[in-house]
């Protein structure tokens, strides 16, 4: 007799096939005999959606019944990428669906490529949020993400004459099977107006309409949620205006409301753009908090219980208006007294800082805040004043213990200044460094709201995203706050999901790992990857490892060919730098080394040329649309590619490729095919980095500075196994000071600079870029390329030397994967849950 198990599997497969065919017939509306890949994708996706919703409904009902404490992850960005493969695999549907898909004449991979990326984010911060959702669900932690359903995600990047071009990302054109519109769930969000009798009377209002995006966990029945809000007008059409022939006026309100959820980070060069950003922030934060309070109130009477049922994690400064909004809702709508509301707020919120770049630490002009959100501004002022009152005694005694008399020569100046300005109370002056409301140092008299300060004061915990970064913020931006309450400051080193970033994107390696370790448990228990260490020296194992890398390189070469037309040899070393383009990430330093290599190849005799290790240098990333230097850096890459790739003398020894429109799904092909990857930010500037972790997991060696999570990766994989170079973070301040008088003592530097400003390129094309790092009368090489250049080339040489010994190289590659377990987002989320959120797993019982 045929075992029951097999019969069930057969029945399931048949059921999946029937469902897909029904979807193709009645949802897509075509004949299954002749489906295009897009139609087949739609049929399969809408079928998988139903499985997802079944498990989603069960999870949410179970959580409603159990009423556990929830984590709410507030983020302006969620870089989800594609969903189909992830959903099929996390739900364990490959067996059931694989055959049905093949019968349609496609593979899962082909159908997946039909899906648009959900690019609702810029880079690391947004992708981190996406990895976190995966881990929250996988660990069965009750938790939801909250954000904005941008109609257009991150712009599409093209190349025009080697420069970045930007076009809108129409990601919703074919519909979105992965969301559930909740049109009945709409919250009112107010703007402008005034405060009357202590309450806000806005004079503009819109609706935040919820869309749920189920998030399947791996190896569990738990399906979490990402709730995104779309902005809609209170009334969408003015019939009277239309009838009067004022057609555009009739739809004005709709257009204006829809602006709010239209694009990610509208350009803030204009006043309107800046206001729109703040509108987006209050829009999703208010909707999220109203939504959670409404659910909380269904089962709880006393608001004081909120901190035991909800924790809101604020992902960088974008959602930090939550401090004022939660206060407002508790006081103005729930009728609580100030102190009670403050107690609840500071126990329910937590804050993560993701950068020390001053331009990214948001400070809103008081004028803009007061106009758009008058009641919030009032609350912020009161928070600030109570906060400073609480510090006044301490500060007074500190000021009192300092010498009162200024030095005689300064005293004369002080008297002159005093004549011009009202006298400054020394205590008030000393309190200024703690203040949420600060004076704009660049514009006298203009007051700003420091959002990071408000977040730290108004929440229970502030954390950085890698060990070094968490130390740096305690010494710099939050120094004074750290000294007041050191217990509030924590580190949570980032992580990435091993599902998307190893198991699914690298099926070849994943199979080998499972075979070698004897089970696939490593996919959720990444510590088990250490079991690979004992095979690192095994020649037969190394050979298998290498042949998988070669297959992945072939896939990457095919991708490069299709995206750029450039053919790259698979026997070359694949060297990758993919991330946002930024001066601090130093893609131009990478290019300086490319120029140096090019010049060395050119100078070598045909005999000497045989000694070079062939390299393909691959760059991908977007530049912010207003960031002129970053755009020039892209032009540098493409221009070098044009020269080098077409130089017959160089032939296959060196290729330079810029892959346009870098996004999540491209990363899933690029990372498995990379052999060395570059994480070369100036020490102290990259908070963590997360692609470094993805490369490490996939056995790709790293050349990097002692910055961000590179430091911890080096600890785990062995510093001697990483190509480390560059100055130390603790010396950066001094070196920046000294850079004015510093000369790069390396003839290769001058050669590179002359090449870039010489007649190979259009006159003056790279003059500004070169001046920025080389002409100390114009700039100061703020990111210290000159200081790191020589050591960087030394590390590059080490790469070539090791690559010639393929066994040694492969051994290192295996050790990288084997020691990547720590960088799973499951580990990171477990730490957040225990050390900040106090949220416990609440798994849906199986059956
Ligand atoms: C801030 C702003 C401010 C206004 C203009 C637009 C804009 C866009 C993004 C941001 C946030 C920047 C912070 C950020 O993305 N940090 C990255 O976070 C990653 C996850 O923690 C981390 O791995 C990266 O090192 C860090 O740069």
UniProtKB/TrEMBL annotation:
GO terms for cellular component: cytoplasm. The modification N6-(pyridoxal phosphate)lysine is found at residue 694. Its EC number is 2.4.1.1. It comes from the Eukaryota. It holds the Pfam family Phosphorylase. Residues 397-422 are annotated as: Disordered. InterPro entries: Glycg_phsphrylas, Glyco_trans_35, Pyridoxal_P_attach_site. It catalyses: [(1->4)-alpha-D-glucosyl](n) + phosphate = [(1->4)-alpha-D-glucosyl](n-1) + alpha-D-glucose 1-phosphate. One of its GO terms (molecular function) is glycogen phosphorylase activity. Its cofactor is pyridoxal 5'-phosphate. CDD domains: GT35_Glycogen_Phosphorylase. It is an enzyme of class 2 (transferase). Keywords: Allosteric enzyme, Carbohydrate metabolism, Glycosyltransferase, Pyridoxal phosphate, Transferase. GO terms for biological process: glycogen catabolic process. Residues 410-419 have a biased composition (Basic and acidic residues). NCBIfam families: P_ylase (TIGR02093). Belongs to the glycogen phosphorylase family. Allosteric enzyme that catalyzes the rate-limiting step in glycogen catabolism, the phosphorolytic cleavage of glycogen to produce glucose-1-phosphate, and plays a central role in maintaining cellular and organismal glucose homeostasis. This is Alpha-1,4 glucan phosphorylase. The lineage of its organism: Eukaryota, Viridiplantae, Chlorophyta, core chlorophytes, Trebouxiophyceae.
């Amino acid at each position: 007799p045929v075992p029951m198990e097999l019969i069930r599997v057969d029945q399931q497969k048949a059921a999946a096939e029937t469902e897909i065919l029904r979807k193709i017939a009645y949802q897509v509306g075509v004949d299954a005999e002749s489906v295009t890949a897009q139609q087949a994708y739609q049929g399969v996706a809408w079928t998988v959606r139903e499985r997802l919703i079944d498990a989603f409904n069960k999870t949410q009902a179970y959580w409603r019944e159990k009423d556990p404490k929830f984590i709410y992850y507030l983020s302006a960005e969620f870089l989800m990428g594609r969903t189909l493969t992830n959903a099929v695999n996390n739900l364990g549907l490959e067996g059931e669906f694989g055959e049905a898909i093949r019968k349609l004449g496609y593979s899962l991979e082909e159908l997946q490529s039909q899906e648009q990326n959900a690019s609702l984010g810029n880079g690391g911060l947004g992708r981190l949020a996406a990895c976190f959702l995966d881990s929250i669900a996988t660990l069965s932690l009750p938790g939801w993400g909250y954000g904005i359903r941008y109609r257009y995600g991150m712009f599409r990047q093209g190349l025009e004459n080697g420069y970045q071009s930007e076009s809108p990302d129409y990601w919703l054109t074919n519909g979105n099977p992965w969301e559930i519109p909740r049109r009945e769930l709409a919250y009112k969000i107010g703007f402008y107006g005034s405060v009357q009798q202590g309450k806000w009377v806005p004079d503009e209002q819109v609706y935040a309409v919820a869309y749920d995006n189920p998030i399947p966990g791996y190896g569990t029945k738990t399906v979490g949620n990402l709730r995104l809000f779309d902005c809609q007008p209170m009334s969408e059409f003015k019939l009277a205006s239309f009838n009067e022939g004022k057609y555009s006026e009739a739809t004005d309100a709709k257009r204006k409301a829809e602006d709010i959820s239209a694009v990610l980070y509208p350009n803030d060069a204009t006043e309107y753009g800046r206001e729109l950003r703040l509108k987006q922030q209050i829009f999703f934060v208010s909707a999220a908090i109203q939504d959670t309070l409404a659910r909380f109130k269904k089962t709880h009477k006393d608001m004081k219980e909120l901190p035991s049922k909800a924790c809101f994690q604020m992902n960088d400064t974008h959602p930090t208006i939550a401090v004022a909004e939660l206060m407002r809702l508790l006081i103005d709508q729930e009728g609580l007294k100030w102190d009670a509301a403050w107690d609840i707020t500071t126990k329910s919120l937590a804050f993560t800082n993701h950068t020390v770049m001053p331009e990214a630490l948001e400070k809103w002009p008081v004028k803009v805040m007061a106009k758009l959100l008058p009641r919030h501004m009032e609350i912020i002022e009161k928070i600030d004043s109570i906060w400073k009152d609480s510090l006044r005694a301490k500060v007074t005694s500190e000021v009192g213990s300092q010498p009162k008399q200024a030095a005689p020569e300064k005293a004369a100046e002080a008297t002159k200044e005093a004549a011009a300005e009202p006298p400054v109370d020394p205590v008030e002056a000393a309190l200024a460094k703690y203040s949420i409301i600060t004076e704009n140092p660049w514009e006298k008299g203009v007051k700003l709201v420091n959002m990071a300060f408000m977040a730290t004061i108004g929440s229970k915990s502030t954390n950085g995203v890698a060990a070094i970064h968490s130390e740096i913020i305690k010494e710099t931006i939050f120094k004074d706050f750290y000294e007041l309450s050191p217990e509030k400051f924590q580190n949570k080193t980032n992580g990435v999901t091993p599902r998307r970033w190893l198991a699914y994107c690298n099926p070849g390696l994943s199979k080998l790992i499972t075979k070698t370790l004897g089970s696939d448990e490593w996919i959720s228990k990444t510590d088990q990857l250490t079991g690979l260490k004992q095979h690192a020296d095994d020649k037969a194992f190394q050979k298998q490892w290498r042949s998988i890398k070669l297959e992945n390189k072939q896939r990457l070469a095919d991708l490069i060919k299709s995206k750029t037309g450039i053919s790259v040899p698979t026997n070359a070393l694949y060297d990758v730098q993919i991330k946002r383009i930024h001066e601090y990430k130093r893609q131009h330093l990478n290019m300086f080394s490319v120029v140096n290599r090019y010049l060395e190849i050119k100078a070598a005799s045909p005999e000497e040329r045989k000694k070079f290790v062939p390299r393909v240098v691959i760059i991908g990333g977007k530049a912010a649309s207003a960031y002129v230097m970053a755009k020039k850096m892209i032009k540098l890459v493409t221009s070098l590619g044009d020269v080098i790739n077409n130089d017959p003398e160089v032939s296959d020894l060196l290729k330079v490729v810029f892959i346009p429109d870098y996004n999540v799904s491209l990363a899933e092909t690029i990372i498995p095919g990379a052999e060395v990857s570059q994480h070369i930010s100036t020490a102290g500037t990259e908070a963590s980095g997360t692609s470094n972790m993805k490369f490490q997991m996939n056995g790709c060696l790293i050349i990097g500075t002692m910055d961000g999570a590179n430091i911890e990766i080096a600890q785990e994989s062995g510093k001697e196994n990483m190509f480390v170079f560059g100055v130390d973070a603790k010396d950066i301040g001094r070196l920046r000071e000294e850079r004015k008088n510093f000369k790069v003592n390396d003839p290769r530097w001058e050669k590179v600079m002359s090449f870039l400003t010489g007649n190979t390129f259009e006159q003056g094309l790279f003059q500004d870029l070169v001046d920025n790092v080389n002409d100390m009368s114009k700039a100061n090489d703020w990111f210290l390329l000159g200081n790191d250049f020589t050591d960087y080339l030394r590390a590059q040489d080490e790469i070539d030397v090791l690559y010639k010994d393929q066994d040694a190289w492969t051994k290192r590659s295996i050790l990288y994967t084997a020691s990547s377990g720590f960088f799973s987002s499951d580990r990171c989320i477990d730490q957040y849950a225990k050390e900040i959120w106090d949220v416990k797993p609440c798994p849906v019982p199986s059956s």
